[in-house]
Automatic annotation (TrEMBL), chain A:
ATP binds at residue 83. GO terms for cellular component: cAMP-dependent protein kinase complex; cytosol. Residues 45-319 form the Protein kinase domain. Residues 320-377 form the AGC-kinase C-terminal domain. The gene is pkac2. It comes from the Eukaryota. Keywords: ATP-binding, Kinase, Nucleotide-binding, Serine/threonine-protein kinase, Transferase. This is cAMP-dependent protein kinase. The lineage of its organism: Eukaryota, Fungi, Dikarya, Ascomycota, Pezizomycotina. It comes from Hypocrea jecorina (strain QM6a) (Trichoderma reesei).
From TrEMBL, chain B:
This is cAMP-dependent protein kinase regulatory subunit. Transmembrane segments: none annotated. SMART domains: cNMP, RIIa. Keywords: cAMP, cAMP-binding, Kinase, Nucleotide-binding, Phosphoprotein, Repeat, Transferase. One of its GO terms (cellular component) is nucleus. The gene is pkar1. The lineage of its organism: Eukaryota, Fungi, Dikarya, Ascomycota, Pezizomycotina. It comes from Hypocrea jecorina (strain QM6a) (Trichoderma reesei).
């Protein structure tokens, strides 16, 4: 067996610079306090099953611990989605900042019609918890893959609801960038409306010394990354408009415009290649134009980022005929009505293994060093 | 862990069919069975599209979603699952994304190759080419008896058969904040190199998309930050497939073999490295994904000869160099812009958008930056160097770092009242009227928020570019 480089070069580990800010209290003197939420404890709930898993999080369907009736017999069951994050994984993956942003922003935006509502949050020795409304329709991703692609009225409906969410986050919430738009992060409620979930990368860009602050941390999903993120040029809320262009493309064709098995090849295409449309299915001129206008490398030309902001997006011909007031007040049901048999039904979600992979313990040393980041969760 | 109920239903139904039919070609039979199941499930689920005009009451399930106990090939299960979902393929197991990326990387060229469907050939025979699946499904005139199966595209060139339709995982690098924000001064690491080494390195990275957009200072800092890494012997693993990736490498001397194990990581045993798929010589590089975020290595790289040398660059250093210089430049632009009187009525947010859109241009000594008499379209900030304004041959003004000229072009298209010529090497940041308007809307409203004419700055008289 060949020797490893680390053995040959004992010094290599020391080369890794430890200059990142989260996790090292000394470099992060300003810890913004989190907005207050209702507190619960894990024993208040019992687990029904897992609804989704991520790199360091798991979302489970839960009921009150004292619930006894089978879920399908309950007319008005109390069911919630509980997002569970392991502290050790959060630390290992250097996501402390992101988790705090997620918790803070979810608390701030609770109540928006197209965003999952945060009902409470709490922590225990090993984990962080966020209690959210249960959205029973499952992921828009599942429907998109099942139907292969959406027709334009369907794509327009979802795109319009997303425009309203982005307008809210960017313009009414003081510059919140969402940064992970994709079909996997859009759920459908019982009436077929969108709920944006997973604010794990959302960030309030805010102002410092009265000027807006761009941000530099690369995050998102490879196919949906904006060119300025790949090039580390500092990015703003404009990344969400780029991603919306990719999303509409994927709605209409069934696959994103830039894809490859090797992520590096995706990034090369994003920074070097224009969006091209297939001959089949035929994409309307308005749809092609809005996709190209969003997926414009030059941010001084990108729709949504240019003057007029979201208002300009709403006025684009692709959205002609959309009644934005009706949209925001959810006056009409969505184009897909999820097959929900009873309020607590979980059949729209795929099945995930329930057993947790082994994980390292959250030690006293770690608690001493990191719990200050988690104590107000 | 128990198998999903829906899966057990499917398998039991398949068992019954196999017992009944005793097929000779088992695999073909199973494939047909599942394709048929998929087709009927899809036909049923499509009905919700057709039904969408008639709202069904709140929570009552669509009747077409009810399991039908009568036929094995009809709706057997009530479980809604995405056929392409990563975990819904009963035989998929937990394939690592790295493994699939490696396995499929060789077929990437076949995207539009009409012959690439041998292995799906059987399915494709059932498809009606040119009858795209979806138009019918939405139009309400779809024929229900034969919706295409999921395995083959409706037409060979309209749907990328190799696209991985599973859920996509988010990626994230460690969070970085500019040091100017946190008041700790940071200077990038620096390793002395000979001019020849610098040239070789430049050549090695010049075509790389992660480097080719950098400016001269950024490139110089990156080249300085690369660390020499002697690899003294043959057979040393520089990177191991599946391991965390933090470094990008350029080969200075020697050569390295590339091994890929289809399972996504090195397995125990003599063949654990997998197949040798390539060799990297001096001037080549590998591991660039590590400069973006920490992803598992896609291959194992082993020195193929004695006394090799590598240059290494870690992600945090790379990203930090780019971030610090971008951050510093933006703050410089913003502070310059604050000094421009006609922009004084802009909010910090608006100035930041302008700073974001400024483009750098360089001029050599003697170059003319703007010509007297030309229509004015752009405004300039002097980032470095010296320039002078001339009316005819008479020098009327000198410009230094932080000075600006031509800003009245943002207000009107009047011809330039003077020429501006670079005295030394000059770097300017420039913005056109069109870009300005795209970003902030009609200039008139913005720039005349405070009546420019009334501002006692002296700039109007000072600016020789503006005619009276």
């Amino acid at each position: 067996m060949a020797a490893t480089l680390a053995e040959a070069q004992p010094g290599i580990a020391a080369l890794a610079t430890g200059t990142t800010s989260p996790g090292d209290p000394s470099t992060d003197p300003t810890l913004e306090p989190l907005p207050p939420t209702r507190k619960f404890k894990l024993s208040d709930f019992k687990r029904v099953r897992t609804l989704g898993t991520g790199t360091f999080a798991r979302v489970v369907l839960v009921r009150p611990a004292n619930a006894t009736k089978p879920l399908e017999e309950e007319k008005n069951p109390e069911v919630y989605a509980l997002k569970i994050l392991k502290k050790t994984e959060v630390i290992k993956l250097k996501q402390i900042d992101h988790v705090r942003h997620e918790r803070a922003i979810l608390a701030d935006v609770a109540g928006h019609p197209f965003i999952t509502n945060l009902l409470g949050s709490f922590s225990d020795h090993d984990c962080l918890y966020m209690l959210l409304d249960y959205v029973p329709g499952g992921e828009l991703f599942s429907y998109l893959r099942k139907y292969r692609r959406f027709d334009e009225p369907t794509a327009r409906f979802y795109a319009a609801e997303i425009v309203l969410v982005l307008e809210f986050l960017h313009e009414q919430q003081g510059g919140v960038a969402y940064r992970d738009l994709k079909p996997e992060n859009l759920l459908l409620d019982q009436d077929g409306h969108i709920k944006l979930v997973d604010f794990g990368f959302a960030k309030r860009l805010g102002y410092k010394d009265d000027r807006p602050v761009e941000t530099y941390t690369l995050c998102g999903t490879p196919e949906y990354l904006a060119p300025e993120v790949i090039h580390n040029k500092g990015h703003t809320t404009a990344v969400d408009w780029w991603a919306l262009g990719i999303l509409i493309y994927e709605f209409l064709t069934g696959y994103p415009p830039f894809w490859h098995q090797n992520p590096i090849e995706i990034y090369k295409q994003i920074v070097e290649k224009p969006v091209v449309f297939p001959q089949e299915p035929v994409i309307s001129d308005e749809a092609q134009d809005i996709i190209r206008s969003f997926c414009t490398i030059d941010r001084s030309r990108r729709l949504g980022n240019i003057s007029g902001g979201a208002g300009r997006v709403k006025a684009h011909p692709f959205f002609r005929g959309v009644n934005w007031d009706d949209m925001l007040s959810r006056r009409h049901r969505g184009p897909i009505i999820p097959p929900i048999r009873y309020p607590g039904d979980d059949q729209c979600f795929d099945v995930y293994p329930e057993d947790d992979a082994r994980s390292t313990a959250y030690t006293v040393e770690m608690a001493n060093k990191y719990d200050r980041y988690f104590e107000d969760f | 862990m128990s198998l999903p109920e829906a899966y057990q239903h499917e398998i039991q139904a398949l068992n019954r069919q196999v017992l009944q039919t005793c097929p000779s070609d088992i695999l073909q039979f199973c494939a047909d069975f599942f394709n048929s199941r998929l087709a009927s499930e899809r036909a049923a689920s499509l009905s919700i599209f057709r039904d969408r005009g008639t709202p069904s009451p709140g929570f009552s399930p669509s009747p077409r979603f009810c399991p039908s106990p009568t036929s094995h090939f009809a709706m057997m299960s009530s479980q809604f699952s995405s056929p392409f979902g990563a975990n819904s393929n009963p035989f998929g197991g937990s394939t690592s994304p790295m493994a699939s990326s490696v396995m499929h990387s060789v077929v990437e060229e076949e995207e539009n190759d009409n012959d690439n469907g041998h292995d799906h050939g059987h399915d494709r025979d059932h498809l009606a080419p040119g009858n795209p699946f979806f138009s019918g499904a939405f139009g309400g005139d779809a024929s229900t008896e034969a919706p295409p199966t999921m395995r083959g595209p409706p037409t060979n060139d309209s749907y990328p058969a190799q696209y991985n339709f599973g859920r996509r995982t988010s990626v994230s690098a460690e969070s970085l904040k500019p040091s100017a924000d946190s008041y700790d001064n940071w200077t990038p690491p620096f390793t002395e190199k000979t001019p020849e080494q610098i040239e070789r390195l430049k050549h090695a990275i010049e075509g790389n998309f992660l480097f080719n957009h950098l400016d001269d200072e950024q490139s110089a800092q990156i080249l300085g930050a690369l660390v020499e890494k002697p690899i003294p012997a043959r057979g040393i693993k520089v990177i191991s497939q599946g391991d965390a990736g933090d470094y990008f490498y350029v080969v200075e001397r020697g050569s390295f073999d590339v091994y890929v194990n289809p399972c996504g990581f090195i397995e125990p045993g003599p063949d654990g490295l997998g197949n040798k798929v390539g060799n990297i010589q001096a001037g080549g590089s590998f591991g660039e994904l590590a400069l973006m975020y920490n992803a598992p290595r896609a291959a194992t790289i082993i020195s193929a000869e004695g006394s090799c040398t590598l240059w290494a660059l870690d992600r945090v250093t790379f990203r930090r160099i780019l971030m610090e210089s971008t951050f510093a430049r933006r703050r410089m632009y913003e502070s310059f812009l604050e000094e421009v009187p006609i922009l004084s009525s802009l909010t910090p947010y608006e100035r930041s958008k302008i700073a974001d859109a400024l483009e750098t241009q360089k001029f050599a000594p003697g170059d003319t930056i703007i010509h007297e008499g030309d229509p004015g379209h752009s405004f300039y900030l002097l980032e470095s160097g010296e320039a002078a304004a001339y009316k005819g041959t008479e020098k009327v003004l000198s410009y230094n770092k932080g000075d600006f000229f031509g800003e009245l072009a943002l207000l009107n298209d009047a011809p330039r009242a003077a020429s501006v010529v670079a005295v030394t090497d000059v770097k300017v940041a420039t913005l056109g009227k069109n870009a300005f308007q795209r970003l902030l809307g009609p200039v008139e409203g913005l720039l005349r928020r405070t009546r420019y004419q009334g501002v006692k700055t002296g700039v109007e008289e000072m600016d020789p570019l503006q005619q009276e």
